[in-house]
């Protein structure tokens, strides 16, 4: 998969333990900022954007979220993959008045508009592939997540 080159091992967490979106976004931001993927301001913008334009997606057997924000706050493109120990409630993308319990959060840090559509198409294909999502949910290491993404199955 093309998106494999954007998945950074230091931004993959297979057992992230958070109570809510704010705590989750804090942890992701701290790691992304420490590794110079994002600029200051990213945390506030991703929170604000998620509030205004929710990214929770409910599929047949699981729910995911794909938060993202403004390109100018991203130094280097990345995809952060976070497997939650306990699901976190996100508002639905297609009906913000409803919520869904999300098990996997993919944070997109994109700064090249010409690549965004390709990446988003691949992300949609990825989240609709039950074999990939089940593999990720059962992964025992960050390396396993990377292998699953690279193999695309």
TrEMBL record:
<feature type="domain" description="PTS EIIA type-2">
    <location>
        <begin position="5"/>
        <end position="152"/>
    </location>
</feature>
<protein>
    <submittedName>
        <fullName>PTS sugar transporter subunit IIA</fullName>
    </submittedName>
</protein>
<dbReference type="InterPro" id="IPR051541">
    <property type="entry name" value="PTS_SugarTrans_NitroReg"/>
</dbReference>
<dbReference type="Pfam" id="PF00359">
    <property type="entry name" value="PTS_EIIA_2"/>
</dbReference>
<keyword id="KW-0813">Transport</keyword>
<keyword id="KW-0762">Sugar transport</keyword>
<dbReference type="InterPro" id="IPR002178">
    <property type="entry name" value="PTS_EIIA_type-2_dom"/>
</dbReference>
<dbReference type="InterPro" id="IPR016152">
    <property type="entry name" value="PTrfase/Anion_transptr"/>
</dbReference>
